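Journal club side-thread
Mid-discussion, someone asked how the predicted structure for our own chain would compare to the paper's figures. Pasting it here so we can look after the session.
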Amino acid sequence: MKNKIVIRREDKNPWERRSPLIPTHVRELIHEHAIDIFVQSSPNRIFADEDFSREGAEVVDSLAKGSVIFAVKEIPSHLFERHKVYLFFSHTIKGQPANMPMLKKMVELECTLIDYECILDENGQRLVFFGHQAGQAGMIDTLWTLGQRWNVLGFPNSFSSIRPAFEYPSLVAAKEEISKVGWAIKNRGLDPNQAPLVCGFAGYGHVSKGAQDIFSLLPADELSPGQIKDLFKKGRFVSDRLYKIVFKEEHMVESIGKKRRFDLQDYYDHPERYRSVFHNYLSSLTLLVNCIYWTPQYPRLVTRKSLERLWTEESSPRLQVIGDISCDVEGAIECTIKATSQAQPVFVFDPLEGKAVDGCQGRGVAIMAVDNLPAEIPLESSLFFSQSLKPLVPLIAQADFSGSFDQCHLPPSVKKAVILYRGKFTPEYKYMKNFISTRS
């Protein structure tokens, strides 16, 4: 007998309108795989209740009818029910303190937790994600931040017409606006105070590709990291072009001590052998877009000390905005001292005082660190995510969650993502026991 599925309404914040499955995919799952699917009523979801009911799903008020609950964001602890199965982005595998009470409640109620972030193929690549959409929304917001920052500094600029991503009716509308900005730059050029505009992308994965997709709407030439210094020599840049640099690991770090060539696998296996050299590029960048996955054992990309040195040595540093799409608080970008939201997406960090002020005014660098960027383009995010998730739904619906973990019959990619099974940490996640005993 198949598990009954409920799609939960999202209620973490007013801007969260995504759905893990879209109506047309729900119809296919119901009719082609005979799966019972219920959809919790929502006044906010990008798809109306009627869109789901028209495709054969039953719209319900609660989660009671389902044994497997599909959501996007974290679920409030009081909504968990004993022995049920939950799929969502739990943000727990790093021991994030805010979510430890939620995890502890799931243990107490003997729930099963499957985290989308951990659904991986045989090569360790994620199968269901919002990375590309995070990059797209994050780049739109970063360009908006630049326009606002330059306005504050008294520099008229074409970017000031750009709005935050969530204010556009669609991604198409946002792209059209940015294309117009590109046309204006191509035909009128940048103000001499703004040229050359150099945008650095840290990372080259899905998030970076999404951000570069938006940046490609502007007239831009790509340079290698080694070409940056030459750009500033007399006559080497033009005002009607922007410049893009994509930084890989080999550009961002160097080995400590004994001189040896950079080795990517060695860096992954022994990050303690390396240190950041990214400070060498900071004075040349106008924008930095952070798209890298970071954990504490790796060197930081931008430290407070490197920013303090830059603001001490230069009266008017070129660096205006850091779009921290990855948004690890005090992580790869150490001056990301907090995550931001659509209500207040930007703060200015003063490297000399070590303080942050909300908005775009003040001395320092403007930080855009919205922590749920894909929600700003809910239609496109839901379409992409649902397409990735749909093939796994029949396999999850057929799984047996009543017996042992070894015999649950989940496909390997999903089984890797089971953090809790009936309230017990699975072998790969046993380390997380310490999180709920010390941080909850």
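Post-session note: The mean pLDDT is 94.
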